Amino acid sequence: MWHKTWILCVFIGNLSTSLQAESKLRWEDCVWIGMERSGSLGLENVRSEIFPILTRDKWKQYLPKLGVHYFGIFSKNQEQIDQEYRDVRLQIQQLLYDGGETEREKQKIELRRLIHSEDKKLLKEKIFKSISLSYLNFNKLMLVDLLYQLRAERYRLEEKKREKESELGLLAKGELGFLKIWEVEFQSKKIHSESAKKLALLELKQAMSLDSRMSLFLEGGITETIRLFEPREIQTSDANHPVLKKVRLQMELAELEEESLENDWKPKLVLGGYVGKNGNLGFPLQNEIYGFSLGVQANLGGTSFQSNTQNGIQSEGNGIQRIPGYGPQPVGSGENAFQSGSIGLFDDMGRNKKVFESKMSVLQAKQDWKQSDISFQNQIQSVEIKVIELYGKYNLYLNNFKSNLFQLRSKREERKENLISELEYLKSEDEMFLGMETLLDHYFQYIANALELVLLLGENPFENRYYRLESKQFSSDLNDILDVWKERTHKKNSKTNEPKLINKYPFLMEESYESR
């Protein structure tokens, strides 16, 4: 963890110029940098900040609402007595009962937060997969390009041979510059290999959100750091994968929406009160006033009902009582009160439609959950079949290549003893070259498909049942083959250990508050 954090700090600090050569990056470093620089992921992190705000707002429904209210009337008309009235009061309202709607709204916000959290995990997996596949593809094309460079060295031997034959008069001068069709195809593939490697590097930079002009240096020897394991049959799948968990949460949210609609008949009770002063002689105000109110609101099958009761006391003098729907009414000293009520008959004509749509949303959410589970399990099995196939092909080509390589080494000795011609040896090596390219393709296809399966199963993408990213280099079959090709000392393979199964779900996909 500290190693990754240090690499990330060094990397971010040098982004304005270029990546320094000494900061060679491994697979996991590329992923962390890409995650840090992802604009879409940063936007989702900002969006997640709205949910605590919405939750706090809903909590405020339980708190009393305070307010200061001022009311004044002034009348100075001809042939009438001048009037002046001012009213200042402190008002308070408290929700007593709402049928549990506020609590349900809080639960809806929490469910939406959890859905957003799963969406963010899916986005992280998408970014992780994009960077990883680009990283693997670039490494594959680097090795393929290396093979073409090694093959080009052998190819130059053929050119020297023809020049020698031309000098000895064994080859016509007109044929010296003539290229055979297999030589043209080889040069064409070599040019294509160089271009493909450059394009793969640009693709990796784009996946990591890096400018194309930035220098990027990767640590080599990928085939010496990834240890492959034989695929084993999957016993259990991950029921808490973000795809499945998201549809379950959406189903819970739809059921909660239906529950809210079914309980909207329950009344809302609001208790209020006020205390203040009024007067007719300007400030300071002379008369004390106070009172309380009770409001009821309900929805009865599309018919709304509202009722309000207010009782107040005017200590002395005259005051004004403001009655909703009737305007200000003069009152004298002593007790004063009013009651009001209204029934809106079928004023919510679309309620039946809302009820129907709510039930349909629940049914659709349940259907989506079942279908997602089926599709998810089928996807796991299809990828598993592909992984097993690729591993079998990789081992088949690997064993065949080892056998052919042994024969090639024999031909190499025969060539040194002049038992066979250089051209005959080059043709044998050319067949090996094509086989090596196919072997590399199956090697990286296996890792790429295994990575997809690992993400579906919720396992660590760097250490799982299909492969393991080692912290130190080890002797691998592919590197032994390349060493033999380069005529280096053949190394003995190290023993392959069984994979260690670790905790589910990649650690870098979850925030500290998230679980799966």
UniProtKB/TrEMBL annotation:
What coarse category fits the chief subcellular location reported for this protein? membrane
Q: Which GO terms describe its cellular component?
A: cell outer membrane; efflux pump complex
Does the UniProt entry include the keyword Acyltransferase? no
The record lists the lineage as: Bacteria, Pseudomonadati, Spirochaetota, Spirochaetia, Leptospirales
What is the name listed in the Swiss-Prot or TrEMBL entry for this protein?
Answer: Channel protein TolC
Presence of the UniProt keyword Transmembrane in the record: yes
Task: Name the UniProt key words of this record, in alphabetical order.
Answer: Cell outer membrane, Membrane, Transmembrane, Transmembrane beta strand
Cellular compartments annotated: Cell outer membrane
One function term, GO molecular function aspect: porin activity
Task: Name the domain of life this protein comes from.
Answer: Bacteria
